[in-house]
Design goal:
The protein is α+β, with helices and mostly antiparallel strands. The protein has helices at 3-6, 17-20, 41-49, 53-65, 67-70, and strands at 29-31, 38-40, 74-81, 86-91, 97-103, 112-118, 121-123. The chain has a seven-stranded mixed sheet with strand order 1-2-7-6-3-4-5. α3 (41-49) packs across α4.
Length: 128
């Protein structure tokens, strides 16, 4: 089943990483215009298909400007749906929380997505 067919099954409880796990590498990268950090084809696909470039902005700007985050070589970013809105959180991959922010409203249609930021590259876990 193609990725495009799977999108018809996305709902507010869907973990997008179960659908996006077909992305296992990247032949090209995209440069974020404000931070100069880069992201992969899988992340570009996510941002385009789910109209969530705002999520890339939020993660990459926070990772660049937040002193505590900019020191971390590996970051696990999770956007998860809560009763009212979303929660964006970042951890170091070893269970230590680094950042958390409530997002009161978003038109993001899925329930959850996880992105990794390592060595200046934002990617899907399946692309690591």
């Amino acid at each position: 089943m193609s990725l495009f067919n799977l999108f018809s099954q996305v709902n507010i409880s869907t973990d997008l990483n179960t659908i996006l796990n077909e992305f296992t590498g990247s032949q090209c990268i995209y440069r974020h215009p404000l931070t100069k950090l880069v992201y992969t084809e899988g992340v570009q696909f996510l941002a385009e298909k789910f109209s969530c470039y705002w999520l890339l902005d939020r993660i990459l700007i926070e990772a660049r400007l937040n002193r505590n985050l900019s020191r971390e070589e590996f970051q696990v970013w999770i956007l998860s749906r809560k009763e009212q809105g979303f929660q964006l959180s970042c951890a170091d991959g070893n269970g230590r929380d680094l950042f958390s922010q409530s997002i009161p409203y978003s038109d993001f249609t899925a329930g959850k997505v996880t992105l990794w930021l390592t060595d200046g590259v934002l990617l899907l876990p399946s692309e690591y």
